[in-house]
Design goal:
The chain is built from two helices and seven strands. The protein is an alpha+beta fold. 14% of the residues are buried.
Length: 116
């Protein structure tokens, strides 16, 4: 299964589902950025376990964007709060087709669906 969140109204890609994430700061490792982003967006403490791959996408401005899906572990199963999202879901692989995904996240799904 995978965890996804729906962007709330007034944000980029409002109404579309995405995988949690964000930018890596200059002084952070991938793992540190992942931990920070989940804490900021969901109030969720996670443990990064394994980077699955890197997926190259292109932003709406035509710039390259690298996405790095991870396997994680956590004692929590639901977020404590939402900042940029209005809904969350744990999704089974066969259910992903029923969700409207952002373009970059569709690329991630095509790459990692076999690992879910």
């Amino acid at each position: 299964m995978c965890f996804a969140a729906r962007k709330k109204a007034g944000t980029a890609n409002a109404g579309l589902w995405e995988f949690p994430g964000g930018k890596i700061h200059a002084d952070e490792s991938q793992e540190e950025a992942l931990i920070r982003e989940w804490q900021e967006e969901f109030g969720w403490e996670i443990e990064p376990l394994q980077a699955l791959t890197q997926v190259k996408s292109i932003t709406g401005k035509g710039e390259p964007l690298w996405l790095m899906p991870w396997r994680i572990d956590s004692k929590q199963v639901q977020p404590k709060h939402l900042t940029d999202h209005d809904a969350v879901a744990w999704i089974k692989p066969k259910e992903v087709v029923h969700f409207a995904w952002g373009p970059a996240d569709e690329q991630v799904l095509r790459t990692v669906l076999g690992w879910l």
